[in-house]
Amino acid sequence: MKGRLLKIAYFSVPVAAVLLSILALNSGPLLKRMAGPAREIPALITEVSTLVAADRWTEAMDRAASVDQRWERIRTWLASSSDAQDLKGFEVALSELRGALEATDRQQVKIIQRRLTAFWAEIGS
Amino acid sequence: MGTTLIVLLRAAIAFVSILVVCRVLGRTQLSQMTFFEYVTGITIGAIAAGITIDLSVRPWPLYVGLLAWGGLTMATQYIALKSRWWGKMLDGEPVVVVQNGELLERNLGLVRVPVDELTSMLRDKGVFDIGRVEFAVFEPSGKLSVLKRSQHRPVTPADLDLPTAYEGMGIELVVDGEVMEQNLRRLHLNRAWLLHRLREQGIDSPEHVFLAVLDTKGQVYVDRYQDRVEHLVDMSDYPGPN
């Protein structure tokens, strides 16, 4: 019985290791689709843009801060399966968004919102 | 900190995956490596390094590349096993470079081995006079096989018609303090028998044994953890690290 179990483990452990590796390397898209902070980010980015259009700058800044917080929570997980340039691009765009909100520059917010959405689509895909 | 964590995670993934790929590909990667297998090994290693430290690209395409190279190598190995023609295409053929003491220059040109390198390889095989070689064959693995002329080969018991006993291979009974139950069962022996044989040598438990091997004559060779050598020979002539 023990020998049989060891034989099964001999084949199943390497297969499981490869499957786990595949899962880890594709965790970015999975994480983005699952419920939780990753899934809320695109909705929050759109909300920032909508609030700016309605001249509700303070609320827009709160939403941008929420994006920052959620991003920090998932960054490492996304990084294990993503291109470093996309991650950097998203982070730079987040900083630009804060700047545009502080300057109350509606046009810039719109441009940055598009950029953030584009980077978000690229991350882990 | 983030980058360190990512590299550690990717290193673990690449390490485990390359371990699996190498085990699947078998031992030829190490022992009878042909030039093709050598290149494959380097490529797989480079991809694994890319997965670990190249953070500028997504690791998934690299991982697919790693699995693809592993799969293609396995497929070519299988095809080479099944088809002799493909085997020759992939691995090449042995080439005779010395025959009856004569250097075959044309064949040497085919394998692109300079004569200096050939004589060096012959010396490595204990041949200092090409005239003593009956055949020297350049193998696809890059190694040289040498058959000396019969009058220059060492005499064997068969040459002298001397009877010899079967020697066989020793079977491990204890390794690193652990009894190899499976080997005992194969030999139709048991733990009680082993303990009795160990006691004969003044050992009361297998835990004190580093290695115990049973030879085909029924003798048990035992090496204890505690070495009984009074004066250890120290080969080192340098006080620093080796």
Structure description:
The complex is a heterodimer of chains A (125) and B (242). Chain A is an all-alpha fold. In chain A, helix 5 runs antiparallel to helix 6. Chain A is elongated, with a radius of gyration of 20 Å. In chain A, 29% of the residues are buried. The model of chain A has no long low-confidence stretch (mean pLDDT 86). Chain B is an alpha+beta fold and 242 residues long. In chain B, 45% of the residues lie in helices and 15% in strands. Chain B is built from 8 helices and 8 strands; from the N terminus they run ααααββααββββααββ. In chain B, the strands form 2 sheets. In chain B, strands 2-1-3-4 form a 4-stranded antiparallel sheet. In chain B, strand 1 and strand 2 form a beta hairpin. In chain B, helix 1 packs antiparallel against helix 2, helix 1 runs parallel beside helix 3 and helix 2 packs antiparallel against helix 3. Chain B starts with a helix and ends in an 18-residue tail after the last strand. The model of chain B has no long low-confidence stretch (mean pLDDT 87). The chains are: A mainly alpha (125), B alpha+beta (242). At the A-B interface, helix 1 and helix 4 of A face helix 1 and helix 3 of B.
